[in-house]
Amino acid sequence: PESSDWYNSGYIMTWGSNVPMTRTPDAHFLAEVRYKGTKVVSVSPDFAESTKFADDWISVKQGTDGALAMAMGHVILQEFYVDNQVEYFTKYAKQYTDFPFFVTLKQKGDQFVADRFLNASDIGRETKLGEWKPVLWNENTNDFATPHGTMGSRWDNEKKWNLRLEDEETGEKIDPRLSLLGMEDSVQTVQIPYFSDDGNKILERTSPVK
Q1: Whole-angstrom distance, CA of residue 61 vs CA of residue 199
Q2: Of 119, 145, 194, 202, which has the maximum CB count within 10 A?
Q3: Which CATH number does the domain 11-58 belong to among 3.40.228.10, 3.40.50.10490, 2.60.120.280, 3.40.50.700?
């Protein structure tokens, strides 16, 4: 994120960026934010320059950063989406993540695999750079919507590159739906790649389809 915004943070993880070494002009922001009580955690296999700014140091084994990130994501999804529905995290997912966006399926043999995001051009919406504007389902209108802040909004010069939950075409408020479960037109079996210590595998899971 923007380094001048670090001072507004209460918790910072330095991960994949050795700030004092590679971003010297920004390093003072990281040192200064600690004076207001912000906790800093360094994720690094070695005691890097950025680690000296940290309250905690997670010394991961080289090459396992991805596994750590996936494990952290798994805990969040399991505890705040699957086992319990926490309002704060649900609102966060709707406004600040790509969870609500539709993903197209591509047939591979007798099965289907995930392909790419469904965009405004795919559903016939006439909008600038529609192929760069993924769509979601608006529960307020029970229809597709194109929110502000997509990549197309960045370059269409319509001044809508922000995170307001509004339809960029109609201006209507958006309440994104996070799952098609319960309103699906059909159910398809989808193949999902799975990587483990036992070797690469393909898992099959049924998914609601619109």
Answers
A1: 20
A2: 145
A3: 3.40.228.10
Q: Where are the beta strands (DSSP E) in 16-170?
A: 39-43, 56-58, 103-108, 111-117, 136-138, 143-145
Band of residue 1 on the pLDDT scale cut at 50, 70, 90: low
d(CA 30, CA 21): 13
CB 203 within 8 A of CB 191: yes
Give the global pTM.
Answer: 0.78
Read off the pLDDT of residues 104-144 as tens digits, 9 standing for 90 and up: 999 988 889 999 999 999 999 989 999 999 999 999 999 99
Query: 192 forms bridges with which residues in the sheet?
Result: 203
Distance CA 107, CA 140 (A): 32
- Residues 132, 155 contacting (CB under 8 angstroms): yes
Indicate the Cα dihedral angle 160, 169, 90, 99, nearest 10°: -90
Element (H, E) at 71: helix 65-77
Strand partners, 88: none
pLDDT, mean of residues 151-164: 94
